[in-house]
């Protein structure tokens, strides 16, 4: 189940006038991870002040009750719903140009995963580090502390690559409140540090998002498992400030032991390892199988040994590599983006909105689905019949 505080993501805000003026009209696109669709919230800057990020709270009141055809909502100064729109022009969802799976000449083949299933190198729409995740997972050697790649997922119209699947590990992450009663083992810390020492200086992979929410415990082996290589990189130019894995391990252990999550609200570029290492006493709010002092001593010694590991990461002897990613063919199809001053159509290629791609007849995957609450209500009613 998606946590309520993680369900909505504010994509971007637009002000049609000075944002300091409370009467200025403001629009904000919000992504709903539950329904996998974008909804635009419209109202004055008084209701949607940029610094307060209130738009997600506003939409949360209405999201489960809106028709799937609704593209935008308008609220008054009290945040009450006054209008809904089904106009497709209100939909700013971007077109994701998934690559055809069978373009053998255009896409380098990395491996053959099984009968009739090949793994190809491809780039997603955003051009962000997520594009490398499937390549990293495939290239990683089998490891007892990594959730492995299981399947490549294709859509069923044109057999385009739309994602991948991994084995489901029950029990939830170490960040789940239901796991606070699970004693944290010292050996799990040892396993995590050994894994980081394997990824960074040996393979040249920086995970960049080590946190309790990305750690599982395998119920079969009772070993710690790392997943979500969404931000992982293998090149120096893609490294992000303060996202090195050593810092991630330190903040992770602090959060696990103390159950203090306030550092997660600090942007990663403002997080520094000394913020938690300089705290003289970590108040233990979780059952451990050893003293806090033992874990901290081990952690401090490990951090000290890692001094200079960035250079080792850059010069990793077994660095994982893969072919350069191709430009999606769909982006080569020209589309009209307004008119020139002379009234002539202004044509361009590249990224476009989903509604533009649909007008051009391009293959568009529709991910929208009913809210979970509606499905639960339907299932309950069926049981009562």
TrEMBL record:
Enzyme Commission identifier(s): 2.7.11.1
Positions of the Protein kinase domain: 70-385
Reaction(s) this enzyme catalyzes, per UniProt: L-threonyl-[protein] + ATP = O-phospho-L-threonyl-[protein] + ADP + H(+); L-seryl-[protein] + ATP = O-phospho-L-seryl-[protein] + ADP + H(+)
Domain of life: Eukaryota
SUPFAM superfamilies: Protein kinase-like (PK-like)
TM spans (from-to): none
GO molecular function: ATP binding; protein serine/threonine kinase activity
GO cellular component annotations of the record: chromosome, telomeric region
Gene3D superfamilies associated with the record: Transferase(Phosphotransferase) domain 1
UniProt KW keywords: Chromosome, Kinase, Telomere, Transferase
PROSITE patterns xref list: PROTEIN_KINASE_DOM, PROTEIN_KINASE_TYR
Subcellular location: Chromosome, Telomere
InterPro entries for this protein: Kinase-like_dom_sf (IPR011009), Prot_kinase_dom (IPR000719), Tyr_kinase_AS (IPR008266)
Entry function: Component of the EKC/KEOPS complex that is required for the formation of a threonylcarbamoyl group on adenosine at position 37 (t(6)A37) in tRNAs that read codons beginning with adenine. The complex is probably involved in the transfer of the threonylcarbamoyl moiety of threonylcarbamoyl-AMP (TC-AMP) to the N6 group of A37. BUD32 has ATPase activity in the context of the EKC/KEOPS complex and likely plays a supporting role to the catalytic subunit KAE1. The EKC/KEOPS complex also promotes both telomere uncapping and telomere elongation.
Oligomeric and partner information: Component of the EKC/KEOPS complex composed of at least BUD32, CGI121, GON7, KAE1 and PCC1; the whole complex dimerizes.
Protein name, entry field: EKC/KEOPS complex subunit BUD32
